[in-house]
Specification:
By secondary structure, the chain is an alpha/beta fold. 40% of the residues lie in helices and 16% in strands. It contains 4 helices and 5 strands.
């Protein structure tokens, strides 16, 4: 199964752990955004970042499961969420989950294609029970 995990940069370590766990159980994470360093200021390497945004976009559109780790702030993760919602409307994929205490922070969090859950294990129990309770 192909996954995309969106979050704020400050959650990079948690996202890395999730990607490692998913891959251990033969799931795919086609684009691991945690591998690049601090991108700011964005205007310093426009060509590089343009390429990066294209890779992120393709990974989101190709994903079967999109997970957003909720937060009280953030910007880019909401753009990624918007792409996932648009793809779901058009193609009925990916399945979209928002987890964590801020999973009702935004109007778009209530879109009918989104499931709001408390934890990643709630997703694993549905999507990949072989991983459930191993986080």
């Amino acid at each position: 199964m192909k996954w995309y995990i969106a979050s704020r940069q400050k959650e990079k370590a948690n996202v890395k752990k999730l990607i490692k766990l998913l891959r251990r159980y033969n799931h795919q994470v086609d684009y691991d955004w945690t591998l690049f360093g601090d991108l700011k200021p964005y205007n310093k390497n426009e060509e590089k970042y343009s390429e990066t945004t294209q890779k992120i976009s393709s990974a989101i559109l190709d994903s079967e499961v999109f997970v957003l780790l909720s937060d009280s702030g953030g910007t880019d993760m909401f753009i990624e969420l918007g792409m996932a919602i648009a793809n779901n409307i058009k193609n009925k994929t990916p399945r979209i989950y928002i987890i964590g205490e801020h999973n009702k922070r935004s109007l778009m969090h209530f879109h009918p294609c989104i499931k709001r859950l408390d934890s990643i294990d709630d997703i694993f129990s549905t999507e990949c029970p072989e991983i459930s309770f191993r986080t």
